Amino acid sequence: MKILIVSATKLEIEPLLVNFVETNQVNQKLREYSFKKLDIDVLVTGVGMVPTAFWLADTLSRNTYQLALNIGICGSFNNTTPLGEVLNITSDCFSEMGAEDGESFLAMADLDLLEDDDFSFNKGQIKNVFSFEHKAISSLKKVSGVTVNKVHGEVNSIELTKQLFCPDVESMEGASFFYACLTHQLKNLQLRAVSNYIEKRNKENWNIPLAVKNVCHTTFQLLQHL
Q: Within 10 Å of residue 176's Cβ, how many Cβ atoms?
């Protein structure tokens, strides 16, 4: 089985990589590994939706995979979700894509600019249409996300985003990953662990090491039984 693991940074998957044997470096972003009976390509795209979209499209145009995994961390809009909890993001959107109308914001669905034949979007949301059942992820909470260029840290913009999209989490890459995978009809999962809450920026409240540890552990459990 050939699997693609996509992450914005090496930091987010470093505890996972120590379990693999590296066999080849394809380019500055893509490396090949082996693990048990699996062939695993690891793509470290760089942070943000544009690098993710470019490098993932390039990789998928040159290779065939049975499964793609987007592994990383996220911020949570819900402060009752424990830091470090691993979540299964099943829908995502480009929440900043739209137009300002005075003090209002019009999302893409409001502008009626989404083509009917663009299967990836459902009223502005990109939903993962592939079902994937496995005991390592069956207990994970399924949530919705927003993908942003600028992470939220101001009260008014946070409240507006919650009103418009009702998201559970925020990342800078998730919707790009979904869009590319769905365009290629590639079965995929987006797994992220909560590293912080969406609030006025306060790094003292973050726990990136715990989030990285937990999402890598869950991913390892998944790979062990594929």
A: 27
Domain tally, the chain: 1
* Strand pairing class (98-101; 104-107): antiparallel
Is 188 among the domain residues?
yes
b/e map of 187-218 (b: 16 or more CB within 10 Å)?
A: ebbbbbbbbbbbbeeeeeebbbebbbebbbeb
184-199 confidence digits (pLDDT tens): 999 999 999 999 999 9
pLDDT surpassing 70 at residue 118: no
Asked whether residue 186 is domain-assigned, the answer is yes
The parent domain of residue 196 ranges over: 2-93+126-158+167-224
Q: How far apart are CA 131 and CA 90, in angstroms?
A: 10
Asked whether residue 112 is assigned to any structural domain, the reply reads no
Q: In this structure, what are the phi and psi dihedrals at residue 178, rounded to the nearest 5 degrees? A: -60, -45
Residue type, 98: G
User: Of 189, 199, 194, 195, which is closest to residue 222 (Cα–Cα)?
Assistant: 189
Tracing tokens 């699996």 back to the chain, one arrives at 38
Q: Is residue 68 part of a domain?
A: yes
How far apart, in whole angstroms, are the C-alpha atoms of residue 68 and residue 66?
Answer: 7
Query: Are the beta carbons of 160 and 105 closer than 8 angstroms?
Result: yes
The residue among 95, 32, 103 whose CA lies nearest residue 63 is: 32
Provide φ and ψ at 52, rounded to 5°.
Answer: -65, -45
pLDDT in tens, 149-193: 989 988 888 998 998 889 999 999 999 999 999 999 999 999 999
